[in-house]
Amino acid sequence: MNPSGTTMQYQLAQLNIAQFRLPQEHPANADFVNNLDRVNAIAESQPGFVWRFTGEGNDALDVQAFADPLIAVNLSVWTDIQSLVKFVYRNDEHKQIMRRRKEWFDKLDFHMVLWWIEAGRIPSLDEAKIRLELLRRNGPTYAAFTFKQPFAPPTGELLNPFKDECA
Fold first, then answer.
1. What is the secondary structure of the chain as a DSSP string?
2. Predicted local confidence at residue 164, as pLDDT
3. I need a surface site. Which of 3, 40, 66, 123 has the fewest CB within 10 A?
4. Is pLDDT above 90 for 137?
5. Judging by beta carbons within 10 Å of its beta carbon (0-12, 13-18, 19+), is residue 114 exposed, middle or buried?
6. Please, which pLDDT band fits residue 110 given cuts at 50, 70 and 90?
7. Which residues pair with 117 in a beta bridge?
8. Which residues pair with 116 in a beta bridge?
9. Whole-angstrom Cα distance, residue 114 to residue 143?
């Protein structure tokens, strides 16, 4: 409960990063870069999508969030973990791009982090970077977790993000 006596609502924040093999402008990355607007529009049309971070354009490729200029960031907010799972792992168009990620990106040990935020709050990029570092240092905890080891929102709801609703 919050100070007014009402139950606080939560949403899921997520950060994922990727390290380009070659500079972003390299022709080898053209298929990825050219599909970003399309995939972002698909994400925005999904049930449960709330918000995504952008730079000067319609994506965040122009934002250098880390010292390494080859690292690209994706920060978004979803109503719940199930909505994000459906987009990331079950949306065919997103999966087609994900299957090709080795063409464009090097493998990173810690590339994604999830955490709960108060509904209506927009996380900052600095906050997201702190959450990724917490995951790297401490492993999955309530403050920073993964799809593989999710934590329930403070509402006490139990999580099973990969369970199909019609199964």
1. --TTSSPPPEEEEEEEEEEESS-TTSGGGHHHHHHHHHHHHHHHHSTTEEEE---SSSSSTT---SSSTTEEEEEEEES-HHHHHIIIII-HHHHHHHHTHHHHEE--SS-EEEEEEETTPPPPHHHHHHHHHHHHHH-SBTTBB-SSS----TT-----TT--TT-
2. 58
3. 3
4. yes
5. buried
6. confident
7. 11
8. 12
9. 8
Give the distance from CA 16 to its chain's centroid: 5
Mean pLDDT along residues 137-158: 86
Phi-psi region at 87: left, alpha or beta (left = phi > 0; alpha = psi -120 to 50): alpha
What residue has token string 């977790």?
A: 145
- Give 120: exposed, middle or buried? Use CB within 10 Å, 0-12, 13-18, 19+: exposed
**Are the beta carbons of 96 and 13 closer than 8 angstroms?**
no
pTM of the entire predicted model: 0.86
- Within a 13 Å sphere around the CA of 105, how many CA atoms are in the beta-carbon half? 20
Total residue count of the chain as it appears in this document: 167
For residues 64 and 107, what is the distance between their CA atoms, to the nearest angstrom? Answer: 19
- Mean pLDDT throughout 99-113? 92
Mean pLDDT of all residues belonging to the chain: 90
